[in-house]
Amino acid sequence: MVKTGVFIRIPLLISVPLSLNFPYMNRFAILLLAVVYGNLLFAQTNTDKKIGKSVDSLLKLMTLEEKIGQMNQYNGPWAATGPLTNDDNLLDQVKTGKVGSMLNVTGVKRTRELQELALQSRLKIPLLFGQDVIHGFRTIFPIPLGEAASWDLKAMEDGARVAATEASAAGVHWTFAPMVDIARDPRWGRVMEGAGEDTYLGSLIAKARVKGFQGTGFGDTSAVMACAKHFAAYGAAVGGRDYNSVDMSLRQLHETYLPPFKAAVEAGAATFMNSFNDINGIPATGNKYIQRDILKRDWKFKGFVVSDWGSIGEMINHGYSKDSKEAGMQAANAGSDMDMESRSYTKYLAELVKEGKVKMAVIDDAVRRILRKKFEMGLFTDPYKFSNEKREQTQWNNLQHRVVARDMAKKSIVLLKNEKQVLPISKQTGSIALIGPFVKAKSDHLGFWSYDWPDDSTRIVSLWEGVKAKVSPSTKMLYAKGCGITELDKTGFAEAVATARKADYVILTIGETRDMSGEAKSRSSIQLPGVQEELVKEIVALGKPTVVMISAGRPLVFNWTADHAPAILYTWWLGTEAGNAMADVLFGDYNPSGKLPMSFPRTEGQIPIYYNHYNTGRPAKNDSDRHYRSAYTDLSIYPKYAFGHGLSYSNFDYSDITLSAPSFTAAQSLTATVTLTNKSTRPGTETVQLYIRDITGSVVRPVKELKGFQQVYLKEGESKVISFTLTANDLRFYNDQLQYIYEPGEFKLFIGSSSDMVKEVGFELK
Ligand code: BGC
C-alpha cells in the first residue's frame, strides 16, 4: 500500500518501568504504594462507571438510525486499501450521523474537516479515524516479521510507541495493528505482517505491540487504539492463498492460533478485527462462536469488533449469506460491531431490527462498545484533540524516532551464515564492490503496508549511503546493479562481474520488491525472483570475500546461495533506516543478534514446515532414515534454516543443563540452568531459548515447544549462569475436551541457540 500525506512527530515517551523490589522497601513505602495503587484502581473504576453512565445517557437520546450510524465505517475519498465503493453523498452521511468511523483519512487538515462535519450532526458524536499503521507511519520500521526476528520485546514496544506518536499527531485515533495471526506458510503474502510461526513468541509480541500503541493509556494524545487482527486463524489459509478457507480442529485453533489474540486482550487491546476466511465452514465475520462465545464471553473483551474490509458482504461469495441483508443480520448477531465498507449495516440493520431479526439489545451492545472507546479517547471532551497542527509539525521530523528505528532495524537482521568469518568487514578495506538491485534502492526497503512521503528520497537511507557513512575515507566504493529484482535481463551481469573483480570485498544485495509480499501477495513459488540467483552464482564464482544480503517480506528459497555464498544476512525490509542498520551490522558496529521467527523451507514442497510439529507414528530420525517414514523420498526432513536460528560474530558455548530436581509437583517449580560463555573476542547478545516436550499425553504433543527465552549480553570471554523456572502452568495444553490442563508424566527440556541446536535433559511432573 502506498500513500501520500503530510505529517509530524512527538518527543519519544520513554516508559520508565516501575520495578518493585519489596524486600528492600520499608513498610511505610509498601503502605503508601498500596494506598496509591488502591486510589488508582478506584479512580479507574470510577472513570469506567462515569463513562458507562455517559454512554447510557447518550444511547437513550439516539434514534435507531443514529445508533446504526455508529456501527458504520467508510473509507475516506483519498486512498483505499480494498475494493472501494464510491458514495456521492459521503459527506452528507457524515453530517447526518450515519457514519461512526472512517479509515484512510490522515493529516490534521483532513481529519479536522471531517470531524467538523460530524459535529454538525444532531448529537455531535465525533468520528473515530482508523488507519493501517503496521510498521511505522512517518518513520518506517522493519516489517513486523523482521522485527519479530529481534526477539526484543522492548524494542518492538518502543517501535509501536513511535508509530503511535507519529500517527496520532496526524489525527489517527486507531491503528489496525498488531496483526497477531500465526503463520506457517511462507507462500502467504501476509506472513510479513505478523510475528511468525510460534504461538508463545507471537503472544509476547502481541502484548508488546499493544502496549506500545496504547502507551500510557487513552486520553493521552500519543496513544492510539490497537486492533488485534485478523480474528481468527487467517494465517492458516489453505495453501497459503490469501483469503482462503481454514479448516482445523478446535483444539488446534485454541492451542496454536487463539493465544496471541487472548494475549492482546490481556494487554488491553481496545479493538479486534475479524477476518476474511471461514473457519470450519463459518466465515469469521459471521462466526458467533469466536466473536461472542470466545472473545466477548470467555475472554471478557470490553472493546469492539470491526469487520475486515467488505468482509460482511463477502459472506455472500462464501455462500453463507444469500444477500447483503442476511449478511448484515448474521454479522451483527455474531458480534461484529462495526461494518467496514460493506454498507450492509447502513442499508439493512434498521429493517432487520424492525423485523425482529436483530434484537435491539445487539445494536445497543455494539454501540455502547463503540461509544465507550470514543469517551475513553477523550473525543467527547475535545473532538479535535488529535488534530493539532503544532503537534503534527513537531512530530514530522523527530530525529529521535529515527534512532529508535535504526536500533530496531539492526536488531532485526539475521546472520544466516558466516564461513571463515567473512563478516564483519573492516572499515579500512581498500575497495568494496556493492552489487545488486538493492544497493541504491530506497522505497523497496519500506515494504508493504508503508507510506510514501514526498521527501522519501532524502530520508530513506540506501545501503550505498549507509556504507559510505561507515567506511574510511580511503575505501573505494564501486557499484554495479547487475540486474533488476524481477526482470529476466542479464545484460548487466558482465559489468557486475567486472566491478566485483576489481574489489577486495563484495556486498551483493538481492530480494523481493516491496509489493511481492503483503495482502493479496501470495506466491506459489518463493524462489528468489528474476535472475538474481544467477547473478549470485557469477559473483560467488570469483572467490572473493562476499556477503549476500537478502531483503524480503517472507522466508525465501535460495538453496544455491545458501550452499555457496560465504556469508548471508537476511535483512527483511528494514524501513527508513535500512542502509544505516545494514552498515552497522556489516562493519561490526552491531554484532547481529536476530533469530528466525519462521522456519525456512528447502523448497515449496516442504510447506508447511514448522518446528513444533507432532512426531507421527513413523518419524524419521535423520536424512538417512526415510524409508517408510513420515518424510519425502526426495527431500531432507530438515528445513534449510530452523526456527530460532541466527548466528553472531561471537561464539557462544552452552554448558550441559542442570535441573534443580529430577522431578517436581504442581505445587512446586523447577529451575533449569546453563552456563553460557562467549568464547570469542567480541561482545555480543545471545537469545537463549528454552523448549519442552511432553513425551506422552492424552493427546499427542509437539516434538518441541518454545516456553521461554532470554537475551543475554556477554563481553568477550565472559560467562553467565542462565536460569529458567518452570511451573506446571507452563506445561498446560488443550485436551480433547478443550480443557487447558497439565498432565503428570515424563518431559524433555531443551536449552540452546535455536530449535535445532539444543542441549537436553529429562524431568518428570509428578
Ligand atoms: C486488510 C486489513 C486492513 C483493512 C483496512 C483489509 O483488506 O485485510 O488488514 O486493516 O483492509 O485497510
Molecular structure report:
This protein is α/β, with parallel strands linked by helices and 766 residues long. It folds into 4 domains: 61 residues, no CATH class; 321 residues, TIM Barrel (Alpha-Beta Barrel); 198 residues, Rossmann fold, CATH 3.40.50.1700; 114 residues, Sandwich (Immunoglobulin-like). The protein is built from 22 helices and 27 strands. The strands form 7 sheets. A 6-stranded mixed β-sheet has the order 11-16-15-14-12-13, covered by helices on one side. The chain is globular, with a radius of gyration of 27 Å. The relative contact order is 0.10. The N terminus is likely disordered. It binds beta-D-glucopyranose (BGC). Beta-D-glucopyranose (BGC) binds next to loops.
| Weakly predicted, low-confidence segments | 1-27
Q: How confident is the prediction overall: mean pLDDT? A: 94
Beginning-to-end CA distance, first to last residue: 54 Å
The CATH fourth-level homologous superfamily of the largest domain: Glycoside hydrolase, family 3, N-terminal domain
In one word, what is the shape? globular
Any idea what the CATH architecture of the largest domain is?
A: Alpha-Beta Barrel
What are the bound molecules?
A: beta-D-glucopyranose
- The CATH C-level name of the largest domain is Alpha Beta
What's the SSE blueprint?
Blueprint: H1 27-61, H2 64-70, E1 72-75, H3 90-95, E2 101-103, H4 108-118, E3 128-131, H5 144-148, H6 153-169, E4 174-175, H7 199-214, E5 227-231, H8 250-257, H9 259-266, E6 271-274, E7 278-279, E8 282-283, H10 288-298, E9 304-306, H11 314-318, H12 324-334, E10 339-340, H13 344-354, H14 360-376, H15 389-396, H16 399-412, E11 414-418, E12 431-435, H17 456-459, H18 463-468, E13 476-480, H19 493-502, E14 505-511, H20 532-540, E15 546-551, H21 559-564, E16 567-570, H22 578-586, E17 652-654, E18 658-659, E19 663-664, E20 669-678, E21 684-694, E22 705-714, E23 719-727, E24 733-734, E25 740-741, E26 745-754, E27 757-765
Parallel strand pairs: 1-2, 1-10, 2-3, 3-4, 5-6, 6-9, 12-13, 12-14, 14-15, 15-16, 19-27
Antiparallel strand pairs: 7-8, 11-16, 17-20, 18-20, 20-23, 21-22, 21-26, 24-25, 26-27
The chain binds beta-D-glucopyranose (BGC).
